[in-house]
Design goal:
Blueprint: H1 3-7, H2 12-28, H3 32-47, E1 51-56, H4 59-74, E2 82-85, H5 90-100, H6 105-113, E3 119-124, H7 130-141, E4 145-150, H8 157-160, E5 163-166, H9 174-195
Helix pairs in contact: 4-9, 6-7
């Protein structure tokens, strides 16, 4: 039983308060040094004109798209971040899934678009998405730095990534983990748009 199961009640007002209180505690427990390292990695990628790839599945795919959009287009700078989500092209994803298997949908695209010095950001609440783990392994062998945005206990991604930003939640608490990943997106984007002045 996770925390949400424990505080669940059919009284929506009480459940709402408990959910918000729990989310507040989760956000307060995030290691802000991990945020700093992530910011430094993004700024370094921009300086070197490296591409920052975002990937995820399900709700995390939506977060990957949102994050890439905010970095590439939301910051409004004359020297933008080269950021893209490679889970956005449905024809490509379905072709690769059909022809090569879902586990390789990200590797196949990295072979086409990726280069040494790029950054790969994998977003997964469980940290155990096989297609992301395979993409991280490919990246490690090809000079692409990996960043894991995880929840729960961090899963395997937490240990194979070059760096990570972990949202500590109980197992299967997808809502709070994914909520926090979006908060990180908006925190990072809000910070960067204010320190980049050009």
């Amino acid at each position: 039983m996770n925390n949400i199961d424990r505080f669940f009640t059919e009284d929506i007002e009480n459940f709402s308060k408990s959910y918000f209180d729990y989310l507040k505690n989760i956000l307060a427990s995030i290691d802000v040094f991990e945020i700093k390292k992530f910011i430094d990695t993004l700024l370094n990628a921009r300086k070197n004109r490296a591409t920052i790839f975002f990937i995820g599945n399900g709700g995390s795919a939506a977060t990957a798209s949102h994050f890439a959009n905010d970095l590439a287009f939301g910051i409004n700078t004359s020297d933008p971040f080269k950021a893209m989500s490679i889970n956005d092209n449905v024809p490509v994803l379905t072709a690769l899934s059909n022809d090569h298997g879902y586990e390789d949908i990200f590797i196949r695209q990295l072979k086409v678009y990726g280069k040494e010095g790029d950054v790969l950001v994998g977003i997964s609440a469980s940290g155990n998405s096989e297609n992301i783990l395979r993409a991280f392994k490919y990246a490690a062998s090809n000079g692409i730095l990996t960043v894991a945005l995880t929840g729960f206990d961090g899963g395997k991604m937490k240990f194979v990534a070059d760096q990570g930003l972990h949202i500590p939640t109980d197992m299967k608490e997808y809502g709070p983990a994914e909520d926090a990943h979006l908060v990180i997106d908006h925190l990072v984007s809000s910070y960067l748009m204010r320190i980049i002045r050009d």
